[in-house]
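can u do me a favor
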């Protein structure tokens, strides 16, 4: 198998042993080390153009996002030209990998899944033309993710998101926007947080789009309305556990596309990558990508929401 492994310089030593084992097993492994923003997307695009069998994104959710954008640009997903994608989780939160059951903290085990796991064909959502695989958030949650510094995350790990979130919680200032899908207004007014999910968890394990499925060609939209500190403190544990979708101050819907028109410019994130605008259009890229996972994810037995 021809494999391109995309990794940042600080993680090279973590993957070296796994690369040696893959080569000993007869695979052709071509490491690509990133040095600046855009390198991961370019390496992925080159790999797609070269027709390799597998691209491994070794890093956090942001690295995976950049690789996904490169693969979608480099080949047409689902048409046989795009390589399979594997995730070697080396980031802080690793939300996508955690949700898919990919081993964390064991690079060699993750690489074993990459070459011998189960192929899982997934949708590729977009926001204003940028692809993402996991969750895109805006408002209070997006600010907490964006403002968690690299230093804080390296010291505290996923707790960094909680610490930064507490700082934001002191202010808890709402934003205003209109959310429409298929001509229907889902919400028009103040909100604290919104999330558009292809998968279920973000921000270090918060199951905000708890009913999302990566292969149903639907976006799970969750909008948390404005509320006071005390009420939000009661709702927050429910959001983290994914038990909030029926809450009266929460709008949760599955839609094929979504448009958001905000009163003021907002910064949203797509798998941790910031996108700033007043209008956000969510849709799907043509076709799909194939992810390597330990086992085929189970379908939800039922969904709930309003």
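np, heres the sequence
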């Amino acid at each position: 198998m021809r494999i391109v492994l995309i990794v940042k310089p600080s993680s090279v030593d973590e993957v070296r042993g796994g690369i040696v084992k893959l080569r000993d097993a007869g695979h052709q492994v071509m490491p690509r080390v990133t040095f600046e923003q855009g390198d991961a997307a370019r390496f992925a695009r080159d790999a797609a153009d070269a027709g390799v069998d597998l691209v491994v994104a070794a890093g956090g959710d942001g690295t995976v996002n950049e690789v996904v954008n490169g693969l979608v640009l480099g080949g047409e997903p689902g048409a046989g030209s795009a390589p399979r994608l594997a995730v070697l989780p080396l980031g802080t939160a690793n939300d996508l990998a955690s949700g898919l059951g990919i081993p964390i903290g064991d690079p060699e085990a993750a690489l074993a899944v990459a070459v011998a796991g189960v192929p899982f064909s997934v949708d590729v959502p977009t926001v204003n033309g940028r692809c993402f695989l996991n969750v895109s958030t805006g408002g209070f949650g997006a600010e907490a993710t964006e403002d968690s510094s690299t230093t804080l995350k390296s010291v505290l790990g996923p707790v960094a998101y909680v610490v930064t979130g507490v700082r934001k919680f002191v202010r808890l200032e709402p934003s205003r926007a209109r959310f429409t899908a298929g001509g229907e207004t889902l919400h028009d007014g103040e909100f604290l947080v919104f999330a558009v999910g292809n998968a279920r968890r973000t921000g270090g394990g918060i199951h905000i789009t708890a009913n999302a499925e990566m292969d149903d060609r639907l976006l799970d939209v969750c909008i948390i309305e404005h509320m006071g500190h005390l009420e939000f403190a009661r709702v927050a544990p429910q959001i983290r556990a994914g038990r909030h979708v029926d809450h009266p101050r929460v709008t949760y819907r599955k839609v094929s596309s979504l448009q958001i028109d905000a009163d003021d410019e907002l910064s949203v994130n797509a798998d941790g990558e910031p996108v700033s605008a007043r209008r956000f259009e969510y849709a799907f890229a043509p076709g799909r990508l194939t992810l390597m996972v330990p086992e085929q994810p189970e379908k939800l037995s039922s969904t709930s929401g309003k």
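The first helix runs from residue 12 to 24. hope that helps!!
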